[in-house]
Amino acid sequence: MKQLLTITFTFLLSIIYAQDVAILKYNGGGDWYSNPTAVPNLVAFANANINTKISKNPQSVAVSSEDIFNFPILFMTGHGNVFFSEDDAENLRNYLISGGFLHISDNYGLDKFIRKEIKKVFPKLEFKEIPSSHKIYNQTFKFPNGIPKIHEHDKKSAQGFGIFFEGRLLVFYDYETDLSDGWEDQIIHNNPQSVREKALKMGANIIEFAFSN
After folding, report:
1. For residue range 115-168, what is the model confidence (pLDDT) as tens digits?
2. Angle ∠(79,130,28) on CA atoms, nearest 5
3. Distances (CA, A) of 139 to 38, 80, 100, 176, 203
4. Is domain 2-212 in CATH 3.40.50.12140, yes or no?
5. pTM for the full predicted model
């Protein structure tokens, strides 16, 4: 407990002075590095529209590394397998309950893996669908119908799920929408500008929420 309190205090001090984001690197063989233009484009949009001053070249950090405590928010995506060791799960759990935030974007194929691995992080908690009234949908940009649909996978409705701990949203998981596809350079997916704009606005809301909660 004393160690966790020390971690929490150190982490809170770090995020007071840091406004930065990172991409989470994980084991298991999944392509954690997919959508390479997504987060840089989101950062540029956030800096231009919600008054952030995030480094335009996001770092990648391993889930096992203490470096994750240097960032208020981690972004995670991919198409395939994810594996958290016991140490990975403990490190990520300590990061999240100390004040950190994780955004997971299902890049099609991630769902069955990430649900199992998040259970290692929070064995007693379940993903819950987040209502449209939640603050994450009502930051600078308003989404009265909840998470927007960006990229079609299986003709299912877009959903936003969360892990809540002691009333606080720690993990935001976009499912059947793939926000990070919408953040990528337009030439990659040929999304209309209106669709990309919705994705970027929702991403900016996620950053704004993570920085202030």
Report:
1. 999 999 999 999 999 999 999 999 999 999 999 999 887 889 999 999 999 999
2. 25
3. 21, 31, 18, 22, 11
4. yes
5. 0.91
